[in-house]
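In the previous chapter we treated chains in isolation. Here, by contrast, the input contains three separate entities that must be folded as one system, with a combined length of 343 residues.
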Amino acid sequence: MTQTTPLSYTLVITGAPYTSQAPQSALAFARALFEAGHRLDSVFLYGNGVYLASCLATPPGDELNWTQAWSEFLMETRTPAVACIASALRRGILDSAEQTRYEQPASNIAEPFEMAGLGDWVEATVSSSRILYFLPTD
Amino acid sequence: MNTLIVIDSLPYGDWRGREALDMAFSLAAFDRPVTLLFRGAGVNWLRPGQAADQLHQKSVERNLAAATIFGVSTLIADKAALRQYRLPSDQLPEAACETDLTPAFYQQFDSVVAL
Amino acid sequence: MPTLHIINKAPDHPRFSACLEALAEDDSLVLIENAVAALVFGELPLPTCYALHQDVQARALSQSAEPAVKMIDYSGLVALTETHQRVVNW
């Protein structure tokens, strides 16, 4: 085991589950980060990546539910996770505050995801020592 | 922290470029230096005379015209792609310049983001 | 400053050639997801690089790996991000 100084990471996911491998690769990478003793500052969902925050995704029983897998990991590790509000609203991902604001019939953001603006991403580009993007493959 | 935001897909066919542009505008709003690169098919963002209303979309040409006002300092076009897509230099927006994409070009930036 | 380039696009995707053009001599390249198909994509002069073992195995490409390609797992990928201050995702 080589001992290195722990680094802080932000992971940005821009590929949707069941459309791209991005949420899976990001989760495997995030787990490996913790095993290596690093810190995960935050996870930021952007573009189609916000679909990962939908608690309504209902894959068939023999497929992994990536929203659930991510939610469990985020809660276990107490990692803050944010869905970009502009990306999310366009694609029908809402929390209860946005549901009320836009008078929509439902909200569907999975715990512990929160909604925030791109300012959070700008902040991460400054405060985290590494920022990695998990992109769609097309 | 100088960031390069890359747009490499055509406008209107998907939202990737628009969302990349939003990232550039956000950096600029927080006074972070940001440069936009139009690479490959992305150079078509720079074509004059777009009629996005035909598709009930907002014109990215108009968005780009606002880029320098919002503090996105430089628009850079992939020189080889301009030729490939038959886009003459004199038709580019005033703020745009052309470049060859070499390792040295990318190394000028602390971070490079392409969605 | 050497850069770590991580690519997930198939070798015939325009992003792939753009990535190879951006690669400086002391940079490192990692193939993940669809990019591992570069191991068998004939016309491509692939530089010395790494490939993510899980993605290679899932796509049944492990027999085809050239000696110039080093197999790594996620902990290997994390280790590469430790030693490279600059990471570019393609």
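Chain B has a mean pLDDT of 95. The CA atoms of residues 21 and 63 of chain B lie 9 Å apart. Compare these points with the single-chain example from earlier in the chapter.
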